[in-house]
């Protein structure tokens, strides 16, 4: 029985039939010259078995080419070099040129990938398929109800403008949401495809990285809340907010702005959260709250603010995933290059960098380290953020300016010692698990009920440059006029 994972491929027999129409290949010596050309293209180890009958020998050559990356293209090129004007040669070249990426993927590599995917959820693969292809995704009804069908459809699509076939992007994204064993095997498979294609793994670019999902694979709903201090009135704050109700297109909808003292802003936030819960009550996705704050408000304990009715102690950081985002960086395009570069490396899971306040030069050392090591994506501060520091003269500001997308710190000096004890455990989960482990720490603080528990004082900045809020035409909070 034919492997269903190979259905739809241009068959080896079709290529052999086309070769057999090339009359000079009926001669043994001419086939020997063809083999010499193929060894020059594919390497000296290319050595198909030889048979006395011409068709059997051609079968052996085609099968050997099919096991090589771009082997069938090399075969067509070699035959074309021998006699470019022969109609039968042109037919062979046209046949190979018509092959999809799936046809050109060596059969053995295809079978290996199919075997790796056998235990994967079909629904998850379909979601990744649509994420990778975007508007080009047109997944027909499954013929066999298996993961193979999703992959088979994906393999039909040609490479992107950068030369990377979507199947490789798909495999990298699947690896990012798989367990360690499967992820290692998938990345090894993808890495094996890269050198012959002259590609560099990983193949997941910023616009096509793995979708951020909840533990149950249902994705996220985002409520982004921006808070700024009115520079004309110290006790007045401005609140803006956006909602994104799922899907792959990041097009958050802005709601009406609000303003008032901080106590009023806290009540407004609770009202916005309560309204979002009501509107999304039938949605299975996890709600993520993102507080878009300037550097001078990063000290706000927004994860400890109450959700809904103040008479019920529902802390935002316990009920939801709560992260901070940097308003200054989002507004300043000159900062975005480093930010993007580090975010691209985040799925690789580089170890977190500890910024230790153990010398007078620790800020200079941090700046130099971040300038030298572009792979650093996560920074953990071993000290509390100094609210009185001059602008740009503290570790948080330096890390933000250097483009670090993920920063973890403790707000309260009384809880710092405990934070330093557990911080290694938090970051050990890797970038993908850091939000979840931080949430568990906050949950533990509320369950125990100790005000000094570090879980009640931990701040996590998780700043995704792919999900920008359009601020460039939005005026900032009013600032005092400067006399001239």
Description:
- By secondary structure, the chain is an alpha/beta fold.
- It has three domains: 4-99; 107-208; 220-462, no CATH class.
- Helix content is 43%, strand content 11%.
- It is built from 19 helices and ten strands.
- The strands form two sheets. Strands 1, 2, 3, 4, 5 and 6 form a six-stranded mixed beta sheet that branches. The chain has a four-stranded mixed beta sheet with strand order 7-8-9-10, sandwiched between helices.
- Helix 17 links the parallel strand 8 and strand 9 (406-410).
- Helix 7 runs antiparallel to helix 11 (180-197).
The geometry reads as elongated
Tally of DSSP β-strands: 10
What structural class do you assign from the helix and strand content?
alpha/beta
User: How helical, in percent, are the residues?
Assistant: 40-55%
Give start-end ranges of low-pLDDT stretches: 1-8, 100-104, 140-145, 204-211, 213-218, 479-484
What would the average pLDDT be, to the nearest integer? 79
Strand content: 5-15%
What is the gyration radius calculated from CA atoms?
Answer: 29 Å
- Span from first to last CA? 86 Å
Number of helices: 19
Count of individual domains: 3
Order of helices and strands: HHHHHHHHHHHEEEEHEHEHHEHEHEHHE
Quick one: biggest sheet? Answer: 6 strands, mixed
List the helices and strands and how they pair.
Blueprint: H1 12-20, H2 28-42, H3 54-66, H4 71-82, H5 87-97, H6 101-104, H7 107-117, H8 122-133, H9 147-154, H10 166-176, H11 180-197, E1 220-229, E2 237-244, E3 253-254, E4 258-260, H12 262-279, E5 286-293, H13 316-319, E6 321-326, H14 327-331, H15 336-345, E7 353-355, H16 362-372, E8 378-381, H17 395-401, E9 406-410, H18 416-428, H19 431-448, E10 458-462
Parallel strand pairs: 1-5, 5-6, 7-8, 8-9
Antiparallel strand pairs: 1-2, 2-3, 2-4, 9-10
Helix pairs in contact: 1-3, 2-4, 3-4, 4-5, 7-11, 8-9, 8-10, 10-11, 18-19
């Amino acid at each position: 029985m034919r492997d269903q994972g190979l259905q739809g491929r241009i068959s080896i027999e079709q290529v052999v039939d086309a070769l057999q129409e090339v009359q000079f290949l009926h001669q043994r010596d001419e086939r020997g010259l063809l083999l010499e050309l193929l060894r020059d293209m594919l390497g000296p180890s290319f050595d198909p078995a030889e048979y006395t009958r011409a068709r059997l020998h051609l079968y052996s050559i085609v099968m050997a080419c099919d096991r090589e990356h771009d082997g069938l293209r090399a075969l067509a090129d070699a035959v074309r070099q021998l006699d470019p004007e022969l109609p039968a040669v042109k037919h062979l070249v046209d046949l190979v040129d018509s092959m999809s990426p799936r046809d050109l993927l060596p059969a053995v590599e295809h079978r290996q990938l199919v075997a790796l995917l056998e235990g994967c959820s079909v629904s998850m693969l379909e979601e990744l398929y649509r994420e990778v292809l975007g508007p080009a995704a047109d997944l027909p009804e499954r013929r066999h109800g298996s993961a193979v069908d999703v992959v088979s459809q994906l393999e039909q699509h040609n490479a992107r403008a950068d030369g990377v076939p979507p199947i490789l992007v798909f495999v990298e994204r699947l690896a990012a949401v798989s367990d360690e064993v499967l992820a290692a095997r998938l990345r090894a498979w993808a890495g094996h495809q890269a050198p012959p294609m002259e590609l560099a793994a990983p193949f997941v670019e910023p616009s096509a990285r793995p979708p951020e999902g909840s533990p149950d694979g249902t994705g996220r709903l985002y409520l982004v809340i921006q808070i700024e201090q009115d520079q004309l009135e110290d006790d007045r704050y401005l609140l803006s907010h956006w909602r994104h109700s799922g899907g792959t297109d990041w097009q958050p909808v802005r709601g009406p702005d609000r303003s008032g003292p901080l106590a009023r802003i806290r009540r407004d936030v609770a009202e916005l959260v309560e309204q979002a819960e009501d509107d999304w009550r039938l949605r299975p996705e996890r709600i993520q709250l993102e507080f878009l704050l300037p550097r001078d408000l990063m000290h706000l304990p927004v994860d400890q603010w109450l959700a809904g009715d103040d008479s019920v102690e529902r802390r935002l950081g316990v009920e939801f995933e709560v992260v901070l985002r940097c308003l200054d960086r989002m507004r300043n395009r000159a900062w975005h290059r480093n930010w993007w570069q580090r975010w691209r490396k985040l799925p690789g899971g580089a170890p977190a960098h500890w910024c230790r306040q153990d010398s007078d030069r620790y800020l200079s050392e941090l700046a130099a380290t971040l300038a030298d090591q572009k792979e650093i994506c996560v920074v953990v501060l071993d000290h509390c953020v100094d609210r009185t520091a001059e602008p740009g003269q503290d570790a948080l500001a330096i890390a933000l300016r250097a483009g670090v997308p993920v920063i973890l710190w403790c707000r309260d000096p009384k809880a710092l010692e405990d934070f330093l004890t557990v911080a290694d455990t938090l970051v050990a989960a890797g970038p993908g698990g850091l939000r979840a482990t931080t949430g568990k720490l906050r949950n533990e603080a509320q369950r125990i009920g100790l005000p000094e528990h570090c879980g009640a004082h931990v701040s996590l900045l998780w700043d995704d440059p792919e999900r920008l809020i359009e601020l460039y035409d939005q005026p900032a909070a009013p600032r005092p006029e400067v006399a001239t």
